[in-house]
Design a protein that fits this description.
CATH class of the largest domain in chain A: Alpha Beta
Strand content of chain A: 25-35%
Helix content of chain A: 25-40%
Structural class of chain A: alpha+beta
GO molecular function, one term (chains A, B): succinyl-diaminopimelate desuccinylase activity
EC number (chains A, B): 3.5.1.18
Largest sheet of chain A: 8 strands, mixed
Keywords (chains A, B): Hydrolase, Metal-binding
Number of domains of chain A: 2
Radius of gyration of chain A: 24 Å
Protein name (chains A, B): Succinyl-diaminopimelate desuccinylase
Largest interface: A-B, 47 and 46 residues
Oligomer: homodimer
Pfam families (chains A, B): M20_dimer (PF07687), Peptidase_M20 (PF01546)
Chain lengths: 356, 356
């Protein structure tokens, strides 16, 4: 059954959720979105894989990207959706009802209905957000058709409980490796114990006091943690290697390079430092006039985003970007994922007012 | 071809080596040993699985067990054996030439030839020494027919370079487990890091100064080591568990219970203590008159054994026991395992003189 864009954004959320679209299986939902928008006279509709772009070409002096992903994490007995009430609150329950079919539904409804928004809008629904970064639809578009992402401001419809979350921390992963010499543990003194040599690394991590750094009015809380540790060969062998895998989340005031220099200074004296992964943070960009205007219009409070999100991809392109969408992010990926339907309506109303 | 017990102990070693007998595959070599001994009028020959016992019943007031295992670690292109010379030294090369076919061959030759030793002798060739303890042939006999192990003194023909190695350290393995609370590493402060909590455990291990303890004139060197460490769930999750697996090798002056009390006192304040494995040490027993007489007769120096060996099984039965055999123990299990043939002859001569 084709999507009904004249239905409410709540109903449209339900329709989108009931089209299963676990990452890698987005073709059907992309087909439906493309079909629903094609033929609307105020939109140019383009497709790249299972990513759909619909944009106005009104010659406004500002352009905004409003984007959201259409894939979900795997289903676990939580489709089809159903409505349920809890006290006075009505919820839509099921996979994708938080992350992030409501944001995609609101965008779809507004794309169809707002023929003359006060800024040009590039509406965007993309695939493969819930899996490894190299498959990410937005990243793919930035490589293949970056001109389609040109804009002065971007909004990602990720669940944020209706608040505006700006920027994000950077994240970096690295190994600190200690070495030793193997020996039979019955003659331990013939060897050198690499696990014992990891003690100063754990001491440094346990004693580290992470900073909280204010960036453009938002406070980003940093963290530094061993997330994995592995060492040893067998129960009777003195271990010759121990690997501590560390995750550093750093405020967007630091570049990735600066974060790396800081970590190398701290850990290179303690072991071999092997950088595994580095993603730049994103400044919130809330001092941009369009962002200020958006905040005022939607009447939402700004908060820092801690997790790395696709906001950082816009930031890397020089476009201020925020997360703004219905749904409680702590329920994302949960088996009892559900959204208070009033949040969907509120989000639609706020965006509509800002764009009208 | 049947074993030729009239050949030299060097030649007999070669014959035993060329019968492949990796642990679990000892039937053929046990058959050959049984066949070679059966019918000799001065010996009572018994079989239990692939373990062969041959004993004199001369009514002597002292009885000695002389035992050796007949299995080897897996073959790795190192059979059949060959003789090779290196300078003035002639070697027999190949799997089992050190661990421990020469000891088994010397015992076999002397069992056949010494019809009237000055003590009663229980000769013993057993299976499954190179694998887990629950399969060990000697342990099986101690369970099923302990009376066959009755003796005043025991000699294991394990390679000891012709020295006498007395007793052995005990060994104990335990986990020290720290717990935390999982959280997404982007919001690390919502969790508690179990790996960081392992820092005091590694500090205690790194700072520990193991003792050296003299027992009956031999100095046993202790050791305490983390041999394995593992913690963490994924690169973006604060870990909720870290397991440090520790091996404590303790002098035979301590009972296993005492060793456990010591380790619990040290580590229980730092994490959950889980005992995994405990094997008592064995006192050298070299103050026993028979042991002293044996040492004087073979003219060998006594040294402590560090690794846990089957000597401890005799010790547990109250029988003083030592390792004494041809071959350099550092070549045991090596692909270039080889024995200086002169060591075989020397060992045979010393045992023959002591028993005659």
């Amino acid at each position: 059954m084709p999507l009904d864009l004249s239905a409410s954004s709540i109903e449209l959320t339900r329709q989108l959720c009931d089209i299963e679209s676990v990452s890698g299986d987005e073709r059907e939902i992309a087909d439906e979105i493309e079909a629903a928008l094609t033929g609307l006279p105020h939109l140019e509709v383009l497709r790249e894989g299972d990513l759909i772009v619909a944009r106005t070409r009104l010659g406004r002096d500002r352009r905004v990207v409003i984007a959201g992903h259409i894939d979900t994490v795997p289903i676990n007995g939580n489709l089809p959706t159903r409505f349920e009430t809890d006290g006075d609150v009505t919820y839509l329950w099921g996979r994708g009802t938080v992350d992030m079919k409501p944001g995609a539904a609101v965008a779809l409804k507004l794309a169809a209905e707002l023929a003359e928004p006060n800024v040009d809008v590039t509406w965007l629904w993309y695939d493969h957000e819930e899996v490894t970064s190299d498959l990410n639809g937005l990243a793919r578009l930035a490589r293949t058709r970056p001109e389609l992402l040109d804009a002065d401001f971007a909004i990602l419809g990720e669940p944020s409980n209706g608040a505006v979350e700006g920027g994000c921390n950077g994240t970096m992963r690295f190994d600190v490796v200690t070495r030793g010499i193997r020996a039979h543990s019955a003659r331990a003194w013939m060897g050198e114990n690499a696990i014992h040599r990891a003690a100063p690394i754990l001491n440094a991590l346990a004693a580290f006091e992470p900073e909280s750094i204010e960036v453009e009015g938002l406070v980003y809380r940093e963290s530094l943690n061993a997330v994995l540790i592995a060492g040893g060969v067998a129960g009777n062998v003195i271990p010759d290697e121990c690997v501590v895998h560390v995750n550093y989340r750093f405020a967007p005031s630091r570049s990735g390079k600066e974060a790396e220099v800081k970590m190398r200074a701290m850990f290179e004296p303690l072991g071999e430092f092997v950088l595994r992964d580095l993603a730049e943070g994103a400044r919130p960009g809330l001092d941009d006039p369009l962002a200020k205007q958006f905040l005022a219009a939607v009447g939402a409070e700004a908060a820092p985003k801690y997790g790395w999100t696709d906001v950082a991809r816009f930031s890397a392109l020089g476009i201020p970007a925020v997360n703004y969408g219905p749904g409680d992010p702590s329920l994302a990926h949960a088996d009892d994922e559900r959204v208070a339907v009033e949040q969907i309506t509120a989000c639609e109303r706020a965006l509509r007012e800002w764009l009208a």
